[in-house]
Amino acid sequence: MSEITLQLEGLTKTYLPGTPGEIQVLRGADLTLRAGEVVALVAPSGAGKSTLLQIAGLLDTADGGRVCIGGQDMAGAGERKRTAVRRQDVGFVYQFHHLLPEFTALENIVLPQLADGVPQRQAEARGADLLALVGLAGRAAHRPAALSGGEQQRVAVCRALANRPRILLADEPTGNLDPATSDQVFDVLLQLVAETGLSALIATHNLELAARMNRVLRLENGVLQDG
Questions:
Q1: Spatial separation of the C-alpha atoms in residues 216 and 118, rounded to whole Å
Q2: Segment 160-213, tens digit of pLDDT
Q3: CA distance linking residue 188 with residue 193, whole number of Å
Q4: Number of domains forming the structure of the chain
Q5: What is its EC number (predicted)?
Q6: CATH number, domain containing residue 45
Q7: Would you say the pTM of this structure is higher than 0.85?
């Protein structure tokens, strides 16, 4: 059986606790994600998908429960440890690409590698390989403004995978694209998961895309349920 890359156990999260506006978005959410697996996360807007992804990716903390990444229990981990695990083991893709406009497509993929101590030449080679995988080898020198929306999002996917993470977390990665471009970007995601063996948890409103993943989980009343 494949390695468990991400384990969430009993996650709870409440905003504005003890006030009239208290919102309990997670009420004991559990999840097991294995290497090579692509899982859809489906829920209405405001149900807590983004909160769950941020906690899973160590960008936020839960009020209760455990997050284990690659077998490491992150309960009680200090910020330095959380940052190191997040940088090395987790890649993020958002609805909006958030590429740095003053840098080329290749440079946007090289920068996170340099921040992790990868030598420049090695980082550039890795970036070029990823751009080739997603069909953008000829666009490496273009800045984001010269790329289409789908091309920008493919670069964002490459950037997320630059440091060879175990886990890809994607929050509505095709939500800002037209249906045809959405399909293209999702095809790239599936291809990269298949070729790298990482695992992916993808939040989406697109039920057709969700149906193409290995599993569908629904976040309902703060709990994850098989879709």
A1: 36
A2: 989 899 999 998 887 777 788 788 878 878 887 887 888 999 998 888 889 989
A3: 9
A4: 1
A5: 3.6.3.-
A6: 3.40.50.300
A7: yes
